[in-house]
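Colleagues,

For the teaching module next term, I've prepared a clean inverse folding example: a structure given as tokens, and then the sequence designed for it. I'd like students to try predicting residues themselves before seeing the answer, so please don't circulate the second half yet.
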């Protein structure tokens, strides 16, 4: 049976679904690329939906016919650490795919939708902070590596990532 996938903007009501998606995905998909000493402290902090993203109008969820969240992600003008920079620069935010739905093009479809919406809002460049795991995905989506970074999650807790950029 063919499943229909719908991509739609999220709302605050999607918090439980996105929390479940993040909790199912990150421990499984990040494990090959990060030591357990990093994951034990980072996962509780990164595996939670960001309410401001869910209500932004620029964060999207791919769901199946039953309404299950299979992938999510989006973009914002504000950066992951807050603040707003140049209006032509947007930021890809919190892209995730359920382990059972990888390699089906869902994250790519969400990003292409985000590209269209960001372009319509006057954005000409998108940056992202990629996990090591997602680096090949973002490269295939046209992002170029700018360098390795350490994302401060809380005082004393950092997460290794890769800063990337893409023109629209």
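(Answer key — instructors only)
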């Amino acid at each position: 049976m063919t499943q229909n996938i719908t991509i739609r903007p999220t709302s605050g009501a999607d918090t439980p679904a996105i929390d479940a998606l993040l909790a199912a995905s990150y421990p499984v998909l990040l494990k090959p690329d990060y030591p357990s000493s990093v994951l034990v402290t980072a996962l509780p902090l990164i595996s939670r939906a960001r309410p401001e993203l869910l209500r932004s109008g620029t964060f999207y969820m791919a769901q199946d016919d039953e309404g299950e969240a299979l992938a999510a992600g989006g973009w914002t003008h504000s950066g992951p650490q807050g603040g707003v920079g140049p209006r032509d620069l947007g930021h890809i935010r919190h892209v995730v795919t359920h382990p059972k739905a990888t390699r089906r093009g869902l994250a790519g479809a969400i990003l292409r939708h985000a590209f269209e919406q960001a372009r319509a809002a006057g954005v000409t460049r998108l940056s992202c902070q990629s996990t090591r795991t997602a680096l090949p995905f973002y490269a295939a989506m046209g992002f170029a590596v700018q360098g390795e970074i350490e994302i401060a999650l809380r005082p004393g807790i950092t997460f290794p990532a890769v800063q990337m950029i893409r023109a629209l």
